[in-house]
Sequence to fold (383 residues):
Amino acid sequence: MYNFSYQNPVNIVFGKNEIGKLSELLAKDSKIMITYGGGSIKKNGVHDQVVKALEGYSYIEFGGIEPNPKYETLMNAIALGKKEKVDFLLAVGGGSVIDGTKFIAAAIPMERDPWDIMLGNAAVEKAVPIGTILTLPATGSEMNSGAVISRISTKEKYAFMSPWVMPKFSILDPEVCYSLPKRQVANGIVDAFVHTIEQYLTYPVNAMVQDYFSESLLKTLIEIAPKVMKEQPEYDDCANFMWTATMALNGLIGCGVPQDWATHEIGHELTALHNIDHARTLAIVLPGVMNVMRNAKRDKLEQYAYRIWNISAGSSEERINQAIQRTEDFFESVGINTHLKDYDVNETTIGIITERFKERKTLLGERQDIGYGTVAEILRSRL
Fold:
């Protein structure tokens, strides 16, 4: 196991009716900006709960943050936040709203173009504090320091991380899952699954706790997926789903182990160019990474095949092939297609993505051994 330092300051408030505790978490003299997405929180009762909890507080609202939050939209929120001199941001939504709010938080104190944060040309030196009310389990953004932002004009999608944008608190009420569209539930399942895989399916470093912890998250997702996909899921299933998604990317299972993230980096390009849901890009790319990089990942792939899918018979190649197929089948079982042709993506897009990685001279993977040529091979295997 590698050396590591781990600290997570996010106050998690978990359970039924906990949105009502919002007033206990905020200073009375705060000037708050509530951020949210397309307006579903006004249909499912979450907005009403927030407004009730904020009686006596000064706040404004900014809605319309998209899935795959757009820089152009967020710049409007930044301008509003500066104009109104807000000193606290409350993100009410899923990972996209929370990610977008992190960008807003980092950008409000800045004088220069905040896109420089995404390009790695500017460090985040301070930020407006934020809190979150999670409405869609998926990204884990409610308990980590990362955010992913898209820019329409350049068809780019990048991530940034900063301890300055760690939420001060996150309220997680599993009952919000009851009203979620099944497409979003499926996306959340796959997102959490691949987040776990990216920190697990690398090479062994004898990190037993992290391995078993990751495997428990993967097994939980496999077990509860059909349950939370029901029209009327049970509370405990929703609670386990929500907590699993949070634990998948709060840094804990990544302590002291190598991490991959090639699937995410390649998937971001598919979203940037074709606006495919983030989780669906992961479902497309991951089997390709597992297949093309099987030699580098062989030990962990065999472990994954045995511990997750109970595959023990056959040669190494046969077991790995079965594990990859079982992974694809799992994604398909929640209604997510796993091939580029399913999204009308062809060789032209592969060429564009390959050229982008070539120009950036980017090397991906836990060993930094995935260059642009391998990216092309991975994508072509998913046509």
